[in-house]
Amino acid sequence: MSSSFDLPEVDRFTAGALGPPGARVFYLQVGAGGQVLSLRLEKAQVAALAGYLAELLADLPTPAPEEIPDPSELVEPVVAEWVVGQLGVAFDESRDRFVIRADEVVDDDEGAGVDVAVAGGSARFALTRPQVAGFVVQAAALVVAGRPPCPLCRRPLDPEGHMCVKTNGHKPT
C-alpha cells in the first residue's frame, strides 16, 4: 500500500518534465512546510488539469499580478511517490481554495487469481487562486514546449520523420 498525503496549506505547486522531448516524464510537485511531494503523471493529465483549472478561474475574481507566484522548477532529486491515475478538483468557497485530489494508479493483479482489494495512495492539497493562476500559465507552457505538432494531423513530429495519417503514409513530413 502506498502513502497518502493531506496538505491543507501549500507553499508551492508546480508541474515539470524531465528528459528530452518525445521521452519526457511529467511530474506534479507540491511543497508544504519543507516537505516536497512529487507525483508522476502523463502530459495529457497536466494539460487537462491546467485547462480545467483555467475554466474554473474564469468564473472567479482574478488575482492581482503581484500575487501570482513565479513558476518554479522541480526540486531535485525528483522521486515520485507513485503514478497518478485520477485527478479531481473542487472549489471550497468557505476557504477560497481549490482542492485537488490525486489518486494512484492501482494494478489489480487480475491474473493472480486472488480477490484482494488493493488500496492505492491518494494526495489531497489546497491551493490559493494565485497559486492556481501561476500553475495554469506554467503548465500550458510546459505542455507546448515538447515536440511541434504536424500541421496536418496535429500529432507530435518525431525528429526522425513523421508518417502522417492525413497523407495515408505516402509522404513523410
Written overview of the protein:
- The termini are far apart.
- The chain is globular, with a radius of gyration of 19 Å.
- The protein is built from two helices and seven strands.
- Helix 1 (43-58) crosses helix 2.
- The strands form two sheets. A four-stranded mixed β-sheet has the order 1-7-6-5. The chain has a three-stranded antiparallel β-sheet with strand order 2-3-4.
- The protein has helices at 43-58, 129-144; strands at 5-7, 12-18, 25-32, 35-41, 84-92, 97-104, 122-127.
- With 173 residues, it is α+β, with helices and mostly antiparallel strands.
- It has one domain (5-148): Secreted effector protein pipB2 fold (2-Layer Sandwich), CATH 3.30.2450.
List the helices and strands and how they pair.
Elements: E1 5-7, E2 12-18, E3 25-32, E4 35-41, H1 43-58, E5 84-92, E6 97-104, E7 122-127, H2 129-144
Parallel strand pairs: 1-7
Antiparallel strand pairs: 2-3, 3-4, 5-6, 6-7
Shape: globular
The overall strand count is 7
SSE class: alpha+beta
Tell me the radius of gyration.
19 Å
Concise summary:
This protein is of the alpha+beta class. It contains 2 helices and 7 strands. Helices cover 18% and strands 28% of the residues.
For this entry, give a set of tags.
3-stranded antiparallel beta sheet, globular, Secreted effector protein pipB2 fold, single chain, 4-stranded mixed beta sheet, alpha+beta, 18% helix, 173 residues, 7 strands
